[in-house]
Design brief:
The protein is of the alpha+beta class and 300 residues long. The protein has a single domain (7-292), classed as Clavaminate synthase-like (Double-stranded beta-helix, 4-Layer Sandwich). 21% of the residues lie in helices and 24% in strands. The chain has seven helices and 17 strands. The strands form four sheets. An eight-stranded mixed beta sheet has the order 1-2-3-4-15-7-17-5. It has a four-stranded antiparallel beta sheet with strand order 6-16-8-14. The longest helix has 15 residues, at 233-247. It is globular, with a radius of gyration of 19 Å. The protein starts with 6 loop residues before the first strand and ends in an 8-residue tail after the last strand.
Length: 300
């Protein structure tokens, strides 16, 4: 059952998803200019639903970048190890190329990417001192099955914790280790810590306050090599296992079932995590992503 009925806000219609977060936005063409009032309505829907989805929006690269800039300063993604694309530096290309999968010597930058792998639950770039606030993801080509981005609501994850778990996370800080990417591939030149309590990733509050809504969310980032400061390692591991199992329980998840060319997704990295389902290596998949610069993480 849909948790909220559809509603109108100015020029847009918002259709909430059948889940604990997410909504489809209808009634606007993002290939055309949008006025400030419509942008404000989109931002209200984003704050309310955490993830927004549009269908049938065949944006050019320039239009994708321009819409992203309306939402905030875009980050330069040229530091990411990926094949040369000739695209603007703000655009990250996420690709599965069947021909490269079968090539005897594919580019090293391609092998370190996601290809057709399952992408684990994570919040984008939490291993940085100032993670991005959001990502705008344009689907260009998609497999007939799998390869779908799914989301979980980290407000709900925090709000539904037991009293005991809330007490254990309040005021705590988490080390966000940068060793692995979201497909569990080791980053070039990185050695994972042998003692997670001595990791060199940034320290972020385990419970963060959203700067727009003021609501509290669990901020887990990604699981490998994470550590809750101040606890013995074994106790940190036990606590994190419990938190991850809770946060990725079905009651917190919007389990989307299909990506289609022309889909556009906008997610909030401060109060959601996302994952991607695996798919056949023979299926081409292509998406472009831009990241919206964020702000320092504020703890509860």
């Amino acid at each position: 059952m849909r948790r909220e009925p559809p509603y109108a806000d100015g020029a847009i219609e918002v259709v909430p998803a059948d889940g604990p977060l997410g909504a489809e936005v209808r009634g606007i063409d993002l290939t055309a200019d949008i006025d400030d009032a419509t942008l404000a309505a989109i931002e209200r829907a984003w704050a309310r639903h955490l993830v927004l989805e549009w269908h049938d929006q065949p944006l050019t690269v320039a239009q994708h970048v321009a819409f992203g800039r309306r939402l905030g300063r875009l980050e330069d993604m040229s530091h990411v190890d990926q094949p040369a694309t000739g695209l603007p530096p703000e655009v990250l290309v996420i690709v599965n190329d069947p021909e490269l999968n079968e090539a005897p010597k594919p580019p090293a930058s391609y092998l370190k990417g996601f290809q057709n792998k399952h992408v684990q639950w994570h919040s984008d770039n939490s291993y940085r001192d100032v993670p991005p606030k959001g990502s705008l993801f344009a689907v260009k080509e998609s497999p007939p099955e799998g390869g779908v981005t799914i989301f979980c609501n980290m407000y709900a994850a925090y709000e539904t914790l037991t009293v005991e778990l809330k007490e254990r996370v309040t005021g705590r800080v988490l080390i966000h280790d940068p060793s692995l990417n979201s497909a569990n591939v080791l980053r070039a030149g990185v050695t994972p810590p042998t003692d997670v309590s001595k990791g060199n990733g940034p320290r972020h509050p385990l419970v963060r306050v959203h700067p727009v809504t003021g609501k509290r969310a669990l901020y887990l980032g990604r699981r490998p090599y994470a550590y809750v400061c101040g606890y013995p390692v074994a106790e940190s591991e036990e606590l994190l296992d419990a938190l991850w199992a809770h946060a990725t329980d079905e009651r917190c998840i919007w389990r989307r079932t299909v990506n289609r060319p022309g889909d556009l997704l906008l997610w909030d990295n401060r109060c959601t995590m996302h994952a991607r389902t695996a798919f056949a290596s023979s299926a081409p998949r292509l998406a472009h992503r831009v990241q919206i610069a964020g702000e320092s993480v504020i703890g509860a």
